[in-house]
Amino acid sequence: MKIHLKKYTLSTSFALLFLALSATLSLNAESSDTSGADVAQSTKGDFIRGAKLWANTCVRCHNMRDPKDLTDEEWKVATSHMKVRAGLTGQDTRDILEFLQKSN
Amino acid sequence: MIHPLLRKTLKCISTGLLVSLTTLPATAQEDDTTLQKNYEKLQSQFEQLSGDMAKLQSQIKKQESSLDRKIEDKLAAQEAVYVERVERLEATQAGGGGSLLSGTSGNSFYHIAGYADVGYTDADDGVSSFNTGHFAPIFHYQYKEILLLEAELAFGSETNEEGETETETELEYLTLDLFINDYMTLVAGKFLSPIGQFQQNLHPSWINKLASMPIGFGAGHGGASQATPIGDVGVQLRGGIPVKDMRINYAVFVGNGPRIIAEEHMGDVEIEGLDTSGTASDLNGNKSVGSRLGFLPLPNLEIGVSALTASAAYVGDEMISDRDYDVYGMDFYYAPGYIDNLTLRGEYVKTELGAGSASEEDAAKKTWEAWYLQASYFMDQYKLEPVLRYGEYEDAHGETKTQWAPGLNYRFSSNIIGKVGYEFNDTNGDEGVSDRFTLQLAYGF
Questions:
Q1: Could you write out the DSSP letters of every residue in B73-137?
Q2: The predicted structure's pLDDT at residue B429
Q3: A73, B207: Cβ pair inside 8 Å?
């Protein structure tokens, strides 16, 4: 049983790492044409959508923070953190950031 | 410059005078009385018009003055906004500087967030004490929109068995997050377990609605995790996918896996539990593999399912071999739209450690199982939030604990929370558990 488990976990590990590596290479390929910032920030955030997402998404875990709590630059880093932690899409993240930066 | 209304009035007066003068010769033959009357009438009209004109001039001056004040106020307010924005930009951008807690450096942004708490507990067995709580700074360092470094340290102090106070320092997590695209991020390093929600998202004291963790979701004797894993060291792929109006979020990970903690009691070796805080190296060459999928059919409803499988490693002289290790979990969050500010959440997790061979010490299969349900309602006008949590936890020895935990929180602000709570604890085990009164002040920054 242990041997099967080991094979299973190792093969899955390699599959996941391969997927990650492929995706990373894909990013690098795109970066050769455009800057890294442009790849992720190709679409602008939407204030209205951002306001709705802010109201619905943040409270899934914590109290809604006042947009004035942080500066524009701080919100940029904070929303990147929340993108990872809450499983937000890139567009949702940009929408929320647009709302927070316009409201602080 | 003459106001149009004033100009019109003067025009009327002059026209009237002119008409009067031109008609005088024609009426020269009239008697003096008639002339005198006409003259007086004209004079009266002239004086009335002069009075009206003075009133109009006064009104115009007042209006102009009021308008000037409004314009000046508006300009001043606008200027203040611009000055504030310029100062803020200067503070964060100029010369790569910024405040101690945040700033920019070329293409990188940094920000220090985190949380801290202090508290007081009074158990009904007579033991009461203040506690220093925790201080957990979180460092964020981001390069453009490509990479984010995240690291959380945790500082706390605890009284050991000799009555000495020890300061504890721990690296809660340290990851490099590579933003692959809008829907996927590669997270590598030491991370909090994506199994369920409490460990990875709800444990910070300014987020957790009560001063304590739900029973079975923390660490037990010897630092062993209870029903839920705490973290791992490895790689994750995480992200969110839109499906029409729905959202799906996911986390798939590979890690070093857990370590078995065993201790000798009265000559017998017993497995106390598992160290799932993230071993710095893989002790048995078997990787753990796990995932969590979160479904959001509605913006105010999330349902998550998690699973993890690994081979738990044992390093020691005792007769214990590596064991199969499996974890299953479910979690949900719901904020009913028909009652504003009501939040419901719950979580279930079960950990199984497989049986060893007959020749091994403590060979029996072991199970840890825990769940909780929690409701909280924020009364906006009073800044108060009543909370009620019920939880159950069954450990590997079959001992079951239950806990009712009502509480009342006061929000000084969205990130500063004062908590008052009481825990009604019960158990079927030999060791009694006492009820506790808890106080906590938590600050998220």
A1: HHHHHHHHHHHHHHHHHHHHHGGG-B-SSEEEETTEEEEEEEEEEEEEEEETTS-EEEEEEEEEE
A2: 79
A3: no
Any B CB within 8 A of A4 CB: no
Q: What is the mean pLDDT of residues B68-75?
A: 87
Tell me whether residues A9 and B289 touch, CB distance under 8 A: yes
The alpha-carbon gap from A46 to the nearest alpha carbon of chain B, in Å, equals 15
Q: pTM for this structure?
A: 0.76
Q: Check CB contact of A39 with chain B, cutoff 8 Å.
A: yes
pLDDT tens digits, B365-414: 999 999 999 999 999 999 999 999 999 999 998 899 999 999 999 999 99
Return the DSSP state at B217. Answer: S
Contact of A11 with chain B, judged by CB distance below 8 Å, is answered with no
Two tokens, residue B271:
């497995």
pLDDT given at position A30 = 47
Chain B: residue nearest A19 by CA? B237
CA-to-CA distance for B409 and B378, rounded, in angstroms? 9
What is the distance between the alpha carbons of residues B109 and B96, in angstroms, rounded to a whole number? 10
Percent residues over pLDDT 70 in chain B: 89
